[in-house]
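Figure 6 in text form: structure in, sequence out.
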C-alpha cells in the first residue's frame, strides 16, 4: 500500500518504520509545517492515511483525507466530541474511517477482560472502583482515551455507576480516573476494585510504542478495501 502519515511526530515515525517493515511505502507525511500546502495531487496515489496528531488538529486532519476520498485510520484522542460528524460523513459519502483509542492488540484484549470483570463485580457493591493511567510527559490529553474507554465499559456493565470524573471524587456513582505524566512511559493503565478487606487489580503496561504502531498498520491493511466505520472489535472479531 501507499500510505500517508498525518502527524509525523514520534508515533508517526514509529508507524513509518513498521509500515516499511511490512512492505508498504510511505508516500506522504503531513504535519503542522506543511498542512496548508497539501493539495489533492499529493493524495493521488495514496491508498490509506494513518492519523496520529494532537486533539486540536485531528478533526481537520481527518476531514482533509476524506475530502480527497482517502480511507483514514486515526488514533488521536481528546477530540471525540466530533467523531459522530466523521461517522455521519462516512455513511453519507461512502467513505472509510477506522478509530481506536488504543491500537495495541494487548490493550484491546485488556478491554475485554475489563468488561468481564465489571460484570462479575456488579453484585459486589462494597468494592469501590478507581482507574489510574500513566503516560509520557508529552501526552497532552488527560485522562487518556484508553482510560476513558475502560471507564465507559465499566459504566455500561454496572448500572450503579453513572459517570467518570477526573482525579478524586466523593461520588459513589462515579469512577475517579487519576492521570500521571512521567518521563518516557509508553502507557500504563490500572483498574482497581477495593473493599475494606482486599483489592483486585488488572493492569496493562506497554513496553514500547511499536505495539501501537503495528496495530495501526494492521488496521490500515484491514480497511484498504472496505467502506464504512470500523473499530478494533471488527478487526479482532471480538
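Output sequence:
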Amino acid at each position: 500500500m501507499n500510505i500517508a502519515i498525518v502527524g509525523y511526530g514520534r508515533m508517526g515515525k514509529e508507524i513509518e518504520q513498521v509500515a516499511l517493515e511490512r512492505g508498504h511505502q510511505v508516500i506522504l507525511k503531513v504535519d503542522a509545517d506543511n498542512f496548508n500546502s497539501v493539495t489533492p495531487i499529493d493524495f493521488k496515489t495514496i491508498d490509506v492515511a494513518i492519523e496520529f496528531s494532537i486533539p486540536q488538529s485531528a478533526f481537520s486532519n481527518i476531514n482533509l483525507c476524506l475530502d480527497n476520498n482517502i480511507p483514514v485510520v486515526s488514533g488521536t484522542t481528546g477530540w471525540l466530541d466530533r467523531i459522530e460528524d466523521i461517522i455521519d460523513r462516512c455513511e453519507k459519502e461512502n467513505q472509510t474511517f477506522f478509530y481506536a483509542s488504543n491500537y495495541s492488540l494487548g490493550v484491546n484484549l485488556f478491554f475485554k477482560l475489563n468488561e468481564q470483570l465489571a460484570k462479575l463485580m456488579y453484585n459486589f457493591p462494597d468494592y469501590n472502583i478507581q482507574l489510574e493511567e500513566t503516560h509520557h510527559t508529552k501526552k497532552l490529553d488527560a485522562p487518556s482515551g484508553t482510560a476513558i474507554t475502560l471507564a465507559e465499559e465499566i459504566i455500561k456493565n454496572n448500572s450503579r455507576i453513572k459517570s467518570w470524573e477526573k482525579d478524586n471524587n466523593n461520588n459513589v456513582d462515579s469512577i475517579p480516573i487519576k492521570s500521571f505524566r512521567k518521563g518516557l512511559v509508553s502507557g500504563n493503565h490500572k483498574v482497581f476494585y477495593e473493599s475494606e478487606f482486599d483489592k483486585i487489580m488488572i493492569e496493562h503496561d506497554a513496553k514500547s510504542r511499536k505495539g501501537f504502531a503495528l496495530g495501526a498498520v494492521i488496521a490500515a491493511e484491514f480497511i484498504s478495501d472496505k467502506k464504512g466505520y470500523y473499530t478494533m472489535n471488527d478487526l479482532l472479531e471480538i
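Caption detail: The chain has seven helices and eleven strands.
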